[in-house]
Amino acid sequence: MAGYLEIRGLVKRFGEFTALHDIDLDIAEGEFVCFLGPSGCGKTTLLRAIAGLDPQTGGTIRQRGLDVSSLPPAKRDFGIVFQSYALFPNLTVHDNVAYGLVSRRKTRAEIGRRVEELLALVGLPDSGRKYPAQLSGGQQQRVALARAIATAPGLLLLDEPLSALDARVRVRLRHEIKALQRRLGVTTIMVTHDQEEALTMADRIVVMNHGVIEQVGTPQEIYRRPATAFVADFIGAMSFLSGTFEAPARVRVGALAFGVPPQDGLAAGAAVQLCIRPEDVQVRNLPADAANRVAVSVAELDFVGSFCRATLDAGAGVTLTADFSSNLMRDLGVELGRRLEIALPPDRLRVFAA
User: Fold this and answer.
1) How far apart are CA 246 and CA 259, in angstroms?
2) What is the DSSP string of 251-288?
3) Would you say 10 and 19 are in contact if contact means Cβ atoms under 8 Å apart?
4) I want to staple 246 with a disulfide (CB 3.0 to 4.6 A). Which of 43, 250, 326, 352 is the partner?
């Protein structure tokens, strides 16, 4: 899909090290996209290339049809918020937000109205005369956000903007940033290593690893239909069972055989990883003919507040995890050593070449 931002064949090298390998990506106007991945995967390098702060070695970047690949940052249409806020400590909140407007030679009255409007928008209407040091971390991040959108850029870039905040403030600001982005309709790219942040905020997620894109999709697609074993492992919890593929739709794990959806591109006898998420393991009201029914014993129980995560032993070295609600724990009398019958629904199983 062509879109507001089009990236083609993007490569970034630092000496002999290639940080980005032939990146192709389209981002639609008004979309909120998260670059997600572990440290060193290339997500921040890609963001900086888009901004022109760390120009690419090869490839092109087009914004609204204009090739910006070789333009300096000042000539590109974006606002940016860094993890460290990067506010000017010697300027008031008002002057921090007004900084970009002053450089564009707006009148004092225009600047005053715009700053007042932006501070109200980010929930800090009475903080204009304060200095950054007088604000909390969450308030400073709001000021940085107001400064980034002051000039009404077409593209908003967020470089791990919440990672320096405590957990409660982070959760609150997630919702505020997403609500603000929807209200403004500004195309937004956020870099994060926090999967929960990406799943709750993004319209689409770009999962990266070792300088390549592993998968692009909605949060639901990424979570429910991971395209690679890396994505399956990185997003959410997942049990991996090593087995052998038996064409056309069966995987053998030790003495156990599991029906799976038909697999393309796998030969009989291929070593595979069979995957299932803990919440997809069925244990209550199983019909007698339930597919992939297995007898297990409860080997470990970890209390996680509203549910317990159980390690289940199917024998012969085969273990997997399952999430049991408090109600299920009580109703079935689940405890360490308890024998249970479970089922692994075929449509919830994923198969990847080992």
Assistant:
1) 10
2) EEETTEEEE----SS--TT-EEEEEE-GGG-B-SS--T
3) no
4) 250
**Is residue 240 classed as helix, strand or coil in its secondary structure?**
strand
Question: What are 177's two structure tokens?
Answer: 């940033």
Q: What is the mean pLDDT of each run of 10 residues along the chain (354 residues)?
A: 86 97 97 96 97 97 96 95 90 95 87 95 94 94 94 95 88 92 96 95 97 98 96 95 94 95 92 97 92 96 92 94 93 94 96 94
Give yes or no for a contact between 313 and 255, defined as CB atoms under 8 angstroms apart: no
Angle, helices 137-149/108-121, rounded to nearest 10 degrees: 130
Residues 6+ apart with CB under 8 A from 239: 275, 276, 277, 278, 319, 320, 321
CA 218 and chain centroid, separation: 10
**3-state SS, residue 204:** strand
Helix or strand holding residue 6 (H, E): strand 5-14
Q: Which amino acid is at 320?
A: L
Q: Is the pTM of this model over 0.85?
A: yes
Helix segments in the chain, DSSP class H = 43-51, 93-103, 108-121, 137-149, 167-184, 195-201, 219-224, 229-234, 326-332
- Rounded-to-integer distance, Cα 6 and Cα 63, Å: 7
Q: With H, G, I as helix, E, B as strand and everything else as coil, classify residue 330.
A: helix
User: Helix, strand, coil: what percent of the chain each, to 5?
Assistant: 30, 35, 40
